[in-house]
Design brief:
The structure holds 2 protein chains of 2 kinds.
Chain A (H helix, E strand, L loop, with lengths): L8 E4 L5 E6 L10 E6 L6 E4 L13 E6 L2 E6 L8 E9 L4 E4 L3 E5 L1
Parallel strand pairs in A: 1-9
Antiparallel strand pairs in A: 2-6, 3-4, 3-7, 5-6, 7-8, 7-9
Chain B lengths: L2 E5 L2 E3 L5 E8 L8 E6 L5 E7 L6 E3 L7 E6 L4 E6 L8 E8 L8 E4 L3 E5 L2
Parallel strand pairs in B: 2-11
Antiparallel strand pairs in B: 1-3, 3-8, 4-5, 4-9, 5-6, 7-8, 9-10, 9-11
Classes of the chains: A mainly beta, B mainly beta.
Chain lengths: 110, 121
């Protein structure tokens, strides 16, 4: 079982807005930054959002992140077929002194 | 560009050993913390081990403590993970990951393509 909690699946039609939640505790999300990774089928995870809401260069602005207290969210606006992937949230856990992850959310574009 | 290339994975029997390598290029390897993260088939991600730039400070997940050893050779820009007393539950893709800075709490910003370790008789 993962330290951070994500819904196992999410879906939407092309053009829709979809949000994925990530829930943690005071020892991780509340006191540190949240990161989001996109894993396309058969590939390695790729950093999608860093420090709660920032996008690395090359990541479309359709992707956005937010954080409040012990929860974080990833939003995908204008959903496209190429967004179909697994999405993982991550945070540093102060009590474990380790990186912890959510179990991943599989996003399906209907 | 940062490039991380893992090797050394394969099929090994329970109780066996394996050494994974990660060849790094495109950045100053000796100043960054490095990590190993694994992903069991169809499962999520698990932070397995980490090492600081000098190799003096290391982290191990409880599940692998005493069985895995992380090390690095800064002169060769290579990260290692020695796996021993392997169990079927260690079956996973093992990713080499670069940290954002010298401390292990720096975020995981660049990932290799992974190497598959399968533990089975």
């Amino acid at each position: 079982q993962s330290v951070l909690t994500q819904p196992p699946s999410a879906s939407g039609t092309p053009g829709q807005r979809v949000t994925i939640s990530c829930s943690g505790t005071i020892s991780n999300i509340e006191n540190t930054d949240v990161y989001w990774y996109q894993q396309l089928p058969g590939t390695a995870p790729k950093l999608l959002i860093y420090k709660n809401r920032h996008r690395p260069s090359g990541v479309p602005d359709r992707f956005s992140g937010s954080k409040s207290d012990t929860s974080a969210s990833l939003a995908v606006n204008g959903l496209r077929s190429e967004d179909e992937a697994d999405y993982f949230c991550a945070a540093w856990d102060d009590s474990l002194s380790a990186w912890v992850f959510g179990g991943g959310t599989r996003l399906t574009v209907l | 560009d940062v490039k991380l290339v893992e090797s050394g994975g394969g099929l090994v029997q329970p109780g066996g050993s394996l050494r994974l390598s990660c060849a790094a290029s495109g950045f100053t390897f000796s100043v960054y913390a490095m990590h190993w993260v694994r992903q069991a088939p169809g499962k999520g991600l698990q932070h397995v081990s980490a090492i600081d730039p000098n190799g003096r400070s290391t982290y191990y997940a409880d599940a692998v403590k005493g069985r895995f050893t992380i090390s690095r050779d800064n002169s060769e820009n290579t990260l290692y993970l020695h796996l021993s007393s392997l169990r079927p539950e260690d079956t996973a893709i093992y990713y080499c990951v670069k940290g954002y800075y010298y401390d292990s709490s720096g975020y995981l910003n660049s990932w290799g393509q992974g190497t598959l370790v399968t533990v089975s008789s």
